[in-house]
Request: fold
Amino acid sequence: MTDTSPASNARNYPLLAAPHIHLHGPVDDAMYDTFKSQLVAAPTEGPLVVSITTLGGDPEVSRAMGDNIRLLREYTGRETLFLGKVAVYSAGATFMSAFPVDSRFLTRNSRIMIHERQMQSTIELNGPLNTLSYTLKAKLHEIEDSINIQEEGFRAIVEGSKVSLEELKKKAPSNWYIEAEEARDLGLVLDII
Reply:
């Protein structure tokens, strides 16, 4: 019989014991700077392990970091591994989506939280009546494009998993919290250490 306790499971993935890139805190420009610095300092050969703990932040920053990971993988063929620790919320889940599901791991008792993009905006209508519709159309285009970006991210999160895009879209409006075991069972991550 195979021992599946977390301690023995961690031994199955020795590379995850010492991530090359450690990210924690809000996903923002400071995290992106830290990410880029650690990426430059990381070994250039072998699998690259990236860990993150975050309550969320700027989704565009997480998409930019994810693009760095994707480009590294596509240009070099290098394996990239994701390790979520404790909290992988919001923009952290967006970053996770840049890694294939079979390269994603969580530490035990970690949680992923996925939600819809948020927007807070005030529209001020001021000026000649013939120009006001342009202001409204511009805001509508911004909303529509944000929804398209959200859908791209949702597709990337569930690609290769047992979760359908429709299921994610149904759960995301109310902040879908997924415990590590459930994430593994749903195929959103490969395993738990």
Notes: The radius of gyration is 19 Å. The chain has seven helices and seven strands. Residues 115 and 175 are 5 Å apart (CA to CA). The first helix runs from residue 6 to 11.
